[in-house]
Amino acid sequence: MCDDAQICFAEAVAGSAAWLGRGLSCVCAQRRESDARPSFDLTPSEEECLQRLQIRIDIAYDSSILEHQEALRALWNAAFPDEELHGLISEQWKEMGWQGKDPSTDFRGGGFISLENLLFFARKFPKSFKDLLWKQEGNRSAWEYPFAVAGVNITFMLIQMLDLEAVKPRTMVGAIFLKFLSEDESAFDLLYCIAFKLMDHQWLAMRASYMDFNTVMKTARRQLERELLLEDITRLEDLPSYSLLT
C-alpha cells in the first residue's frame, strides 16, 4: 500500500495485476509532512467554484446509478458511433484501453469526474479525441499507452498538481487555475483536454514506449505548470499547448 507522500495510481485505479502492471502511476510531488506550504486567499467566487469542483471530485463512479450508466454509454457512442455496445460489462471496452471488460473497476482512481472529463473531451474536441484513441498521429511505439486508463491517470494527476482537495490552494499554479475556474466552470475539463493532448505530444517527442509513461507524465506536468505561470496567460485558451487541440 502506498503512503500519503507518493500515491501509486496503479493501486488507486484497479488494484489488480492487469497488463498495465505498475507502469502507470500518478505523478505526485513527494513531500514531507513537516514541509511548510503557503496558502492563497480566495475570492468568494473562487471559493464557491472550488467547492463545486471538490463535490465533483468526491463523487465515486457507481454502476448502479442511471446517470453514470448513461454517461458511460455516451462515451462509447462518442468513441465508436458505428459499433453497438453489447453491455456495460463487455470485452468491447478493451478496445478503448480499459484494463478489463468492466470499466467501473478503473474509475476508482479518478472517480466519476474522470468519466466526465473523457466525455467532455470527446464532445468538445472530437478529432483530437479520436486521434488519441486510435493513435493516428506520429510514429507510434509497438507498445502504446492504453488510452482510457491513461485518461483516468491524467484526471488524477491534475487533481494532485492543482492541489484541489485542499481548502485553499497552496501553490501559485493552483491559485492561478482557480481564477480561470471562477470565470469558466468547465476550466478543469478544458485543462484536462489540454493535458491529455500535451502528454501525447511529449510521448511522441520522446519516442516513448509503455515503460516510459511515468517519465512522459512528469515531463507533461512540468510543461503544463510552466505554461500556467506565464505572465501573458489570461485564459486557458492562451496556453501554448492549447494549440495542439483540433
From TrEMBL:
<dbReference type="Pfam" id="PF04727">
    <property type="entry name" value="ELMO_CED12"/>
</dbReference>
<feature type="domain" description="ELMO">
    <location>
        <begin position="67"/>
        <end position="228"/>
    </location>
</feature>
<dbReference type="InterPro" id="IPR050868">
    <property type="entry name" value="ELMO_domain-containing"/>
</dbReference>
<protein>
    <recommendedName>
        <fullName>ELMO domain-containing protein</fullName>
    </recommendedName>
</protein>
<dbReference type="InterPro" id="IPR006816">
    <property type="entry name" value="ELMO_dom"/>
</dbReference>
